[in-house]
Amino acid sequence: MGRMFGYARVSSREQNLDRQIQTLKKYVDEEHILTDKESGKNLNRPSYQALKGALGLRSGDTLVITSLDRLSRNKTDIKQELQWFKEQNIRLKILDLPTSLIEVPEGQKWILDMIQNILIEVMASIAEQERLTIKKRQREGIEAARKKGKHLGRPRVQIPEEMEEVYTLWKNGKITAKKAMELLHMSSSTFYRKIQEYEKVSGPKGH
Predict the structure, then answer these.
(1) What is the DSSP pairing of strand 4-10 with strand 62-65?
(2) Residues forming a β-bridge with 7
(3) Reading across the β-sheet that carries 33-37, which strands appear in turn?
(4) Chain centroid to CA 36: how far?
(5) What is residue 92's three-state secondary structure?
(6) Which residues sit opposite 9 in a β-bridge?
(7) In the chain, where are the structural domains located?
(8) Which one of 63, 110, 141, 153 has the lowest number of neighbouring Cβ atoms within 10 Å?
(9) How far apart, in whole angstroms, are the C-alpha atoms of residue 42 and residue 38?
């Protein structure tokens, strides 16, 4: 028999871990419950990485969590972690997924493998569907903006009519760049960007 570990996570230091810990204590000794008060956006969390490290989970061990989103809130990451547990021969028990708690007779480990494979496929499908939905919404948003004649991205500053005259004065040293910006009502970054655009169209002028 391998060892039993528990893992609990909340998203911020203000949140309380007590409820998860009390639930996990029904299955795991408290000294073997590791906790993080970190966001589920990524996997770079101290206690969770310790569990996966050299002194943590080993082949034949079991990790107990209250729900899948304690591992991560990113569906792609969850699928990746489920695959890692499978490859390392680590049993994952998820308390709000009763099928993951099934105990099987010796020699019938294939049943647990089947459950884990189904879970991996389900999470992969959900993650893929979320990606497709996001892409579809982006395409719809771009198309709607085009129909309304909107320019997407940073608003473009049109080259004003006075650009040629002011540009020539500035290029010939008659006025400073600061004065040119004032006359054109442009910020420094916009002014030099528009100079580049203007010179591409008309070519450099002056001395």
Answers:
(1) parallel
(2) 34
(3) 33-37, 4-10, 62-65, 91-94
(4) 18
(5) strand
(6) 36
(7) 4-128, 163-202
(8) 153
(9) 9
Q: How confident is the model at residue 158 (pLDDT cuts 50, 70, 90)?
A: low
Is there a contact between 7 and 33 (Cβ–Cβ < 8 Å)?
yes
CATH number listed for the domain at residues 4-128: 3.40.50.1390
Q: Where are the beta strands (DSSP E) in the chain?
A: 4-10, 33-37, 62-65, 91-94
pLDDT (0 to 100) of residue 116: 76
Tokens of 26: 């029904």
Residue 38 to residues 9, 16, 52, 77, Cα–Cα distance (Å): 7, 12, 16, 15
Structure tokens at 166: 């002011």
Residue 59 C-alpha from the chain's centroid? 29
String of b and e for 47-69 (b: at least 16 CB within 10 Å)? bbeebeeeebbeeebbbbbbebb
Average pLDDT across the chain, whole number: 83
C-alpha distances (whole Å) from 63 to each of 3, 13, 97 are 9, 23, 14
198 vs 31 pLDDT, higher one: 31
The structure's pTM equals 0.57
Which is nearest to 117 in space by CA: 131, 98, 100? 100
One-character DSSP codes across 100-146: GG----TT-HHHHHHHHHHHHHHHHHHHHHHHHHHHHHHHHHHHHHH
End-to-end CA distance of the chain: give it in Å, rounded.
Answer: 85
Query: Mean pLDDT over residues 156-183, rounded?
Result: 83
